[in-house]
Amino acid sequence: MDSKKGDLFALASIPLIMTLGNSMLIPILPQISRVLHISSFQVSMLITVYAVVAILLVPIAGYLSDKFGRKKIIIPSLIVAGAGGAVAGVASWFAEGMTVYWIIVAGRLLQGIGAAGAFPIVLPLVGDMFDDDEEVSHSLGIIETSNTFGKVLSPILGALLGAWIWYVPFLAIPVLCLVSLVLVIFMVKEPERKQKAKPLGEFLESVKQVFQEKGRWLYAIFAIGCICMFLLFGVLFYLSEQLESRHGLDGVVKGLVLAIPLAALCLAAYFTGKKIGNNKNLMKWCGVIGLVMSTGALFGIGFFNNIYFVIACLIVCGAGIGIVLPSSDALITEGIEKSLRGTITSIYGSMRFIGVSLGPPVISLLMKAGHMTLFFVISGVSLIAVVLLLTMVRPESGEDKEKEDVKKARRPIHQL
After folding, report:
1. Which pLDDT value is given to residue 403?
2. Contact, 323 vs 286, CB < 8 A?
3. How many domains does the chain fold into?
4. Which of 24, 115, 150, 160 has its CA 20 to 30 A from that of 252?
5. How many whole angstroms separate alpha carbon 70 and alpha carbon 190?
6. Phi, psi dihedral angles at 397 (to 5 degrees)
């Protein structure tokens, strides 16, 4: 693993920068709403449109990465994502009124196209780089920590840049993408592909077979990834709105407050990635613990609207999600053969993007129904994830699998 530190550092920059490019808009959404004279729902669509196009394109990017190689998809994707940020950033220079809004939407769509071929492809590439499952789990933990560290930085950086001029966070996106692009080009050495890509028909048949054999737990992990992102981006949107409208916090101060639950998420993801190793049973129960923490915290917020209590509960919720994400990443990456890993993990990435896209608009609508209704509904959604993980995912631990392999090796040939 020491020999691949440079590769891992470069790859970790992708989720960091992709997260900054999206999440640092959260603290400035109310500001954009005021400047462009648009509704809360309309401004939430700037998060949603980015995710929707990624949902559609991530599986395609995954298949292309399986066929042509990971770097050949990641590099142009970073370029496209940077171009999308630039379009959104310069919109107000060339247009006025609602035209600016629609140009920003177009830029966000372009950014979403780029994002589809960036972060989701990192997961299978990390899986390709290591043969040892424990190294894969630890490396995925680092990737997920980088992703969550981006979420910690994003409200602070977004608020800081937005305090200068509201569209500067958009202009920062091409700069960030350029940094990651240079790192990937010069530092990432993609492992040589030992198998030729399968023809499309044979490939689709293999994917179908994977879902027939492993669909039960795959669908559950897909749904859990979606729910975690829905909860995360939903509560961040809620907290951003409440801090500004009810408590008069904006700018960097609001960004610092938003970063508190995200810091808990980041730390939990890092330590979980180090702990789980190749023990799939431990991955499952870490996920269960994390989801129970999130469910309880969100349910508790429903009873009290005190801002200090809300933030304390969101710290617990963030830590819970931080435990779930690297566990889910490891389960799905290590459970799929390398030739299909890009496609299957990209579908998982699509489901996460669905959660991102649903979070802000659904929360903006639920906020109209009242505080208690909002948090009882989303805690119920979190509880669904607990049930799915408990009932649908039944992995073997690394030790159990090793013992089973030994038993098979000792059986007479006619019994195998």
Report:
1. 42
2. yes
3. 1
4. 115
5. 7
6. -75, 165
Residue 125 included in any domain: yes
Is residue 17 situated within a structural domain? yes
> What distance in Å separates the CA atoms of residue 40 and residue 46, rounded to the nearest whole number?
11
- For residues 359 and 234, the answer to whether their CB atoms sit within 8 Å is yes
The Cα–Cα gap between 216 and 320 comes to 24
191 in any annotated domain? no
Of 287, 338, 321, 319, residue with least CA distance to 133:
338
Task: Tell me the residue range of the domain where 379 lies.
Answer: 2-185+201-415
Can you tell me which residue has the tokens 């969100």?
298
Q: At residue 109, what is the residue type? A: L
C-alpha to C-alpha distance for 145 and 155, rounded to whole angstroms:
16
Does residue 192 lie within any of the structural domains? no
- Cβ neighbours of 200 (radius 10 Å): 10
Burial environment of residue 289 by CB neighbours within 10 A (0 to 12, 13 to 18, 19 or more): middle
Look up the CATH number of the domain holding residue 171: 1.20.1250.20
